[in-house]
Amino acid sequence: MQKLVEVDPWKIKQNELGFDQRPYESIFSLGNGSFGQRANFEEKYSGKTLLGNYSGGIYYPDPTKVGWWKNGYPEYFAKVLNSCNWIRLDVEVDGFSLDLSELNVKSFYRELDMKTGILSRKFKVELPNKKQITVSAQRFCSMHNDEVGAISYSITSDQEVNINIDSFLDFDIKNEDSNYEDYFWQNIEPHTNEECDLIIAATKKTNFWVALSQITTLNIKNDNFISSYESTKGDRFISRSFDCVLEAGQTLTTKKYISVLTSLKYDKEKLIDLVKNNVLQAKINDFEKLKTDHSEAWQQIWENADIQIEGDIKAQQAIRFNIFQLYQTYNGKYSYLNIGPKGFTGEKYGGATYWDTEAYCIPFYLKTSNSSVAKNLLIYRYNQLQKAIENAEKLGFKNGAALFPMVTMNGEECHNEWEITFEEIHRNGAIAYAIYNYVKHTIDYEYLEKYGLAVLVSIAKFWAQRVNWSEDKSKYVILGVTGPNEYENNVNNNWYTNYIAKWCLEYTLESLKRFPKKIQLEETELNRWKDIIDKIYLPNIHGTGIFLQNDGFLDKEIFPASKIPINQRPINQYWSWDKILRSVFIKQADVLQGLYFFENHFSEKVIKENIKYYEPLTVHESSLSPSIHSILFSKINDHKKAYEMYLRTARLDLDDYNHEVHEGLHITSMAGTWLSVIEGFAGLRVNEKGLYFKPILPEQWHSYCFNIMFRNQRVKFDIRKKSSVLINYGDQAINIFTNCKPYILEPHSKLTIVC
Amino acid sequence: MQKLVEVDPWKIKQNELGFDQRPYESIFSLGNGSFGQRANFEEKYSGKTLLGNYSGGIYYPDPTKVGWWKNGYPEYFAKVLNSCNWIRLDVEVDGFSLDLSELNVKSFYRELDMKTGILSRKFKVELPNKKQITVSAQRFCSMHNDEVGAISYSITSDQEVNINIDSFLDFDIKNEDSNYEDYFWQNIEPHTNEECDLIIAATKKTNFWVALSQITTLNIKNDNFISSYESTKGDRFISRSFDCVLEAGQTLTTKKYISVLTSLKYDKEKLIDLVKNNVLQAKINDFEKLKTDHSEAWQQIWENADIQIEGDIKAQQAIRFNIFQLYQTYNGKYSYLNIGPKGFTGEKYGGATYWDTEAYCIPFYLKTSNSSVAKNLLIYRYNQLQKAIENAEKLGFKNGAALFPMVTMNGEECHNEWEITFEEIHRNGAIAYAIYNYVKHTIDYEYLEKYGLAVLVSIAKFWAQRVNWSEDKSKYVILGVTGPNEYENNVNNNWYTNYIAKWCLEYTLESLKRFPKKIQLEETELNRWKDIIDKIYLPNIHGTGIFLQNDGFLDKEIFPASKIPINQRPINQYWSWDKILRSVFIKQADVLQGLYFFENHFSEKVIKENIKYYEPLTVHESSLSPSIHSILFSKINDHKKAYEMYLRTARLDLDDYNHEVHEGLHITSMAGTWLSVIEGFAGLRVNEKGLYFKPILPEQWHSYCFNIMFRNQRVKFDIRKKSSVLINYGDQAINIFTNCKPYILEPHSKLTIVC
Questions:
Q1: pTM assigned to the model
Q2: Residue positions of B annotated with a catalytic role
């Protein structure tokens, strides 16, 4: 854990420049669900940096790189693509490049205001000729209009200086994460006219088109407009360069308006006109108006999604940072987009869609947004069902069985390690679980009939073919899987996988009954499902209530993670892979993930027994782990551990627990953080009848307060030591179930609960 | 199975040219233990071909290519390097390139005479101008002087023609098996003088130097010597070109003498002088003399190593092909060389040393050569012991424990799949077993004390650290391994691995007792070994005598391989990897490999039970499998199955069973073929007291006859239906044990055995 940023309830602040900007570039990233970027400096920086501009859904199918090819491997691994760098402003003062890594930096300050979504920066440097330059910059990716971004960049000098500013739309970028060092773009066309610059390019192979436009204005003191410029069209860029003389004490302000559009949203032939109009409109609106609209959009989001924590400023900052990043990543408008593990903050992991979306993000969006957001995420999978069926066929399954990919952009599998791709099949379970979760929250049975059911049936068919009958055990078994705990590979009878497979079959049968005419299945198929439900292997450890992680687990040397020498943590950085696999240590919640999903199937005693057994063996080297543990610790009233796990998940990136924040943020696990407050501390559950609520207050906190969306009505919870106040802002009464008694929360009314 | 070549007792013959030369290039490969090559044509060929010239021990450490890096991975994968192409003769006749893929081929014949080791070729083509050209070529890599090769290439025309011949030493070659398409050579220097051409080059990174020289002579009708030439020095080649006019009916003969030397054998600065002298000497000797010396060297080898089979010409051809290829690959002179799975016949698999050497090749060389050959192979591992200790340290082992690499050139691991590299640890067992085998054959205890013991102790230490105590089983277990059956990965308690680990500890303890002062170990270490020997987990299947392949095996769906649809065989070409892993099918002998090694530890009943259980589940998709099965079937007197398995291993490449001969030959498995005759049909065993002998005669054979070397004495076996005749060519009497009674085979005498 290291101190990267200052603590503040609403802001992220950096006071020291440092040399390696990459951790800060991740933390200060901006995005608006459609496009986004790392917090690279506008001007040149020759220190350590990782350039990143990304357009949602734009990917490149990089040929798979493996040591030994295995049958069934996907042919490519989809890469999150570095797209056009639109923030680039090359600045020269008296012929010296403004480069914070080269100049004498007198002061540096960077701030992300999460309330308004504005990234700002202020610094003072001394040039080799001893003149002092102060820069003040702001920028944002508009949440109000997710096709627009803007920069304001002001330069003041203590003496007269010559300034050259060159404003770029620059496709001369490359991916750090590239298997064969290819350049991924083609057909790059720069355009320019009096008012604005444009560039359009296509991705190789996938032929996505991305168009950008920019208008760059320069003013001195708001009245002295600089209009003469020189345009340069490069092979991969367009730029517009301005020269001026700045008198001592004067301020030169550059404003840069941009628009980004892609062919995912618009017809290719319309892109140029649209992107040009957009940027003209943005300039007419002016930076201040755009900024106000943007900040108001954030205000709207915070109204629903904010969590206020009193008495614990670190926790407060952290939870807001998590919520802020989630909404920057996915705005819920487009069913062709999803939530990459690193969002718009880095390239790593490729692909956009993991089971993280279903297991972690959907519950977050379900409770903080209109239900259409979660629905779009579910329809994304529905739209990819055919590809999931083809994926299963490649592995030898038939008759419409579907295996959704472990990692994907377009529905095709693009992970290339067999132990993950072929074996981490529990993802199919999480996708079914998200359907169940969505329906439970929304009672949207129309969705279930129209979309969900087909997905469930194909998933159920997969499980029915994937199990086999063990003569030896007289049970159905599932062989050769990797569970959520990726520190075991190719194991038999992973309890979590077996359990969720069984549950999928049950839930699909139940859903089929609701729409008996929608999908007709053979009696033999249905009977097999029922037989599997009855006879699947789900062992306990020697007559205890503890479920067996997987076959062979008890052959391991069992000792708690606390006994691992501290200089060997995280073990994935210090131990060889075979040692990790043989060890008893669990990367992330696995049996416990199952107990979290299906908590009502088990007694509190059983849940406690399992936590007590597995938690000491868990090393939490997946960012998805501590949040689930936090929720379960809240459930069993272990406040101390719940809070410890909460802090670990909440400040994972801000405090860079795993020494990897420079690669980008752990976006999807941030949803887990949110869940550890709402489902953990507040003990909130949704079922068809209403809300269940059993809060605890961490002793470090005076109170906490949040809203949730329940069937598109906003409900506020204010949780204090002795009571909780609930406000229903909607038009429908809501049933509230608590530990002591049930209540009815009337429309537009307040309810105080003491129990 | 396809018919590629004609059946003949001593020759391999090809009558049809075909388009794809690659299968033939593999089958007709030449080598002499030091260097070798695929049977590429001397002249240009623009059809399908895989160029291959190789120098033993010369490799390139190609950076490892994997999808996701895992801790402990080796940094590179050693590649068998394509070295200088010295056979190249570009021939133009009347300006037409002599290219069999382009011209009208009237006849084509190629022959490998295994008795003499000569590759010859004869063909007739018609040029576009209707002139007919006949070519007759011969070449060899000298077994008499393993630094020399020679080609004789004769051209006859039915009409007067202009001929240009350009003779190359050509480093402008590339590896098909290359991770990043790199060129692996540098510092290439061509030299030329009146008499000869030279080229020297260094491998990148490893900086091995390879020097070649050539002398090219042209004669018409043996008297008309063509002496005017033109030399060309390219960046990567040197060539010498000749022009002449050939009258109708005349024959132009080109003779090319070459020498190849490497810095593995000589000082770098001496290479040029040595290689020049070598080629001058070769030319003085003349082609015919070199050829005679070469053929006599082969005759020597055949004297010890030949197997004569009467009544079965296919089996006869096959066994000679196997023996021929083994001796072409490894001549036993150099302890820095080893036996690559493809020898000098292809690039695939990289590296030179697998456990194949110890498990298959050493028993072959032990019985066909002077014991120094096997000893050199053992010393090769001894020389790499320190690297094996470092390899184990990388994986977390300590205190001198060694894990020998799965694949290596220089002692460092260079395989890059975790399930093989980290988990296929049974290779350590095979290395210990080879020491035991060598000592049993040779009673060379001096070797054991000086070299073997240190290797054994480090291997024993490895096993002692690699097991762990299972509280659940109250046994020592070995978790996370891949056995010889690579169609299971990351399994627990592979019976073969557990058994050989136990045996290694026993044999090391026994060996330590023989030399009590050589290596001192702590009492606690020795006690742990003894405790493991007592308490290692080695289960049978439900009270039968059948050993359990590995934990979880009985959870699989068990049905015989014969039920797999024929269009899904081999399964590794049709099934996805996860399906293979979940299936019950065994790639190669695994439990049975253990029963083969340790046959005296088990009753014949137990061996029979295990064969009966595992054989139907075995798909033999490793070339190493059928031979072991053949030996075991001989042992249990199932002659029919023994013969079926023999044919499968013996003609694997000649009949291209697995559709992969174009990549090269399965050199190491050829030793298994030999074993299936000697240890299988002949039932020959060696122990400290003498030879044990229990022959069977396959019903397809009239008789078979072979020699073995026993303690550096040659013993001949002539096995017929009713009797066997043994001849001892040595000076020492030998004890012979048979099924009925023991004999003494006196020096220089003959013994007829009927029983």
A1: 0.93
A2: 486
